Amino acid sequence: MRAPGDKSGLKAGDTLLAVENVSLTFGGVKAISEVSFDIRKGEIRAIIGPNGAGKTSMLNVVNGFYHPQHGRITYKGQTRARMKPYQAASQGIARTFQNVALFRGMSTLDNIMVGRTLKMHRGLFWQMLRFGPAMAEEIEHRRVVEDIIDFLQIEAIRKVPVGKLPYGLQKRVELGRALAMEPELLLLDEPMAGMNLEEKEDMCRYILDLNNQFGTTIALIEHDMGVVMDLSDRVVVLEYGHKIADGTPDVVKADAKVIDAYLGIERGVSGPSQESEAT
Length: 279
Fold this sequence. Notes:
This protein is α/β, with parallel strands linked by helices. Helix 3 (about 110-115) runs parallel beside helix 6 (about 165-180). The chain contains eleven helices and ten strands. Strand 1 and strand 2 form a beta hairpin. The chain has a six-stranded mixed β-sheet, with helices on both faces.
């Protein structure tokens, strides 16, 4: 499998993407309020928080699906104007979704081939003929896809329609489709949701291998705190659209605000009222 190309000149540890004071509102509902954080090249960056914290909305802002009312996104040193998802994809940003978004009637191989679309340059005429230059191009991209299939260890299901696959394997196919784009920044929205322990362990291994072997920068939303603490280099925590913590896993898990957000504890209560609650 190919490592993602990097034309930005950035080195490991440099800021690949910066979110600066971003706010996103739907009518009177504030999904994100003045949130700032960065993602460094080569790291696994976790975004966590309770349900409704604004995590998926933030990924939708990063890949251009939502346009914030305030703030800005800087990617590879360039401040982005309003951008469509296909433009983000062409600049090296790929993602998976909280709910699997695959072509259920198509095979595993064909679903992953969809991820190569932006890499194909022959026109529709040649692709319809599937002859000459178009055939040579398709063969080249098929080799890349076969390498991804080998990497994800899904050779046995390469010709199986994904609608017939169990959920855990569908999530792996969706990861393969994102990898087919050779992303510089890979956005994973709850990649282990609905998986059993064995499937989670497999997915963790693939994520670590992508990061360690190929240098892929990863932004990860995940509710399993064990997974987050084991995988991530840094963690940003959202609650009701606000950032409440940002730092290494050890720093974040000891933060009082984070503990309160996840356990539902309200601090600052004292005197008789505290005693009455305890009883």
